[in-house]
């Protein structure tokens, strides 16, 4: 019986470069495949800043949605915004959550960074 050829299998590890990407065959540190898949989500171009308490035992968080950024850029922006507010927070599913009521401060900061921003909620 003849053996099946596996044409898309390539080098996975090299003693020279370490781990390599199976798609582009570059070292993992230089891989460009992941940048193609880490695109920003499509939206209407308006960043909304609101407040939520749902599922947080009455504790309020400021929520920033609609940012047209990739995940790495979103995490960098979240880090800057948390530092500006002097508060903690996280990035979940493309949404920045910052602990506390900081809507006015975040609207001003995001407007300064040239985003189209609307304050959501009451």
Q: How many helices does DSSP assign?
A: 3
Please tell me the overall pLDDT: 81
**Global geometry:** elongated
* Fraction in helix: 10-25%
Can you put this structure into words, describing what you see?
The chain is of the alpha+beta class and about 120 residues long. It folds into two domains: about 10-40, no CATH class; about 45-120, Translation Initiation Factor Eif1 (2-Layer Sandwich), CATH 3.30.780.10. It is about 25% helix and about 20% strand. It contains three helices and seven strands. The protein has helices spanning about 35, 70-85, 105-110, and strands spanning about 15, 20, 45-50, 60-65, 90, 95-100, 115-120. The strands form two sheets. A five-stranded mixed β-sheet has the order 5-6-4-3-7, with helices on one face. A hairpin with an 8-residue loop joins strand 3 and strand 4 (about 60-65). It is elongated and about 60 Å long.
């Amino acid at each position: 019986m003849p053996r099946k050829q596996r044409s898309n299998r390539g080098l996975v590890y090299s003693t020279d470069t370490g781990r390599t990407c199976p798609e582009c065959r570059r070292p993992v540190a230089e891989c460009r495949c992941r940048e193609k898949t880490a695109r920003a989500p499509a939206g209407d171009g308006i960043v909304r800043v609101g407040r939520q308490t749902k599922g947080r035992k009455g504790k309020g968080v400021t929520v920033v949605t609609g940012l047209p950024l990739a995940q790495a850029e979103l995490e960098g922006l979240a880090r800057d915004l948390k530092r500006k507010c002097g508060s903690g927070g996280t990035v979940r599913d493309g949404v920045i959550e910052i602990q506390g009521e900081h809507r006015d401060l975040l609207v001003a900061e995001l407007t300064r960074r040239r985003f189209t921003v609307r304050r959501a909620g009451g």
